[in-house]
Specification:
Number of domains: 2
Strand content: 15-25%
Structural class: alpha+beta
Number of strands: 14
Radius of gyration: 27 Å
Largest sheet: 7 strands, mixed
Number of helices: 2
Length: 282
């Protein structure tokens, strides 16, 4: 005669199953979380490549949809839920949705594409992919403001970076002068910048330009076509040039706000040191 399970045996089996489920659940949750993150990174790579292709073929940075307000001097990006619509067709066959059911977003100032992750209320779980990774000085242009054909006091130097930034302070002490790929001392050539006055209204929350304009100071001996300029290899100097991010919470269809890390003594990201750059005529 067949005998069924006793109540105690059933309780033991249920208890064992509960223990196994309790042990396995955290691993399964981690697997699901990592799978979603991997899927987001795959999608972001597709979006990033589309932005890079647009930037190279159109010869201007993709900023998403632009405001059509005729009162604006320059159209500003309308940062919302349709940041990649301007790429669809020629650069994107379709626009994916992230694994958490939300639209991917673009930051045209920090230059990355991202997902807000499982929680849209905090940045700590965002998944992002840079299409312009490091903030770097890429070009220096000289404007002969006083028409004397020499780089003298009163002329302008345009320091152009590869993406927008906030400059806390620009100083000639931040740079080294090179001649024939060798650092030269002040006796041979010295870059002099006048005291820099920030433009009216310019602050870390309105820094949307990639160009810093400084005046040449008295006593400058750097010569066009002879000398090159590079940042000093000093972290304290480099931290004066900070990456900015779009502040979507504060921005409006007619005005973009930016932000850096709240602790500006340790900015979120800051300029990197590159090879010396020749000064060219503007």
């Amino acid at each position: 005669m067949k005998r069924g399970f006793s109540l105690i045996e059933l309780l033991v089996v249920v208890a064992i199953i509960a223990i196994l489920v309790g042990v396995a659940t955290p691993y399964y949750s981690d697997y699901v979380r990592e799978s979603k993150k991997a899927k987001a990174l795959q999608d972001l790579d597709v979006l990033k490549q589309a932005v890079v292709l647009f930037n190279s073929q159109e010869d201007l940075p993709y900023q998403g949809l632009l405001a059509s307000d005729p009162t604006l001097l320059e159209p500003v990006p309308v940062l919302g839920e349709n940041d990649f619509n301007g790429l669809q067709g020629r650069y994107l066959t379709y626009i994916p949705v992230d694994p958490w059911g939300k639209n991917y977003k673009l930051d045209p100032y920090a230059c990355y594409v991202y997902s807000e992750g499982p929680d849209s209320r905090t940045d700590t779980d965002n998944v992002k992919d840079y299409y312009v990774k490091d903030l770097a000085l890429v070009r220096i242009e000289w404007e002969d403001f006083n028409n004397d054909r020499e780089m003298t006091a009163g002329d302008n130097l345009y320091f152009q970076f590869n993406k927008p930034l906030y400059c806390a302070n620009i100083s000639d002490s931040h740079f080294e002068v090179y001649e024939n790929n060798q650092v030269v001392g002040a006796a041979t050539a010295s870059l002099k910048l006048a005291a820099w006055v920030k433009p009216a209204g310019y602050d870390f929350d309105t820094a949307t330009s990639s160009v810093i304009i400084a005046q040449v100071g008295a006593g400058n001996t750097v010569k066009l076509g002879v000398h090159s300029i590079a940042f000093q290899d000093d972290l304290a100097d480099l931290k004066n040039y900070m990456e900015v991010r779009a502040d979507r919470t504060r921005s409006t269809p007619t005005k973009i706000y930016t932000k850096v890390d709240p602790n500006v003594t340790s900015p979120y990201r800051y300029a990197v040191r590159t090879n010396p750059i020749k000064i060219v005529t503007k």
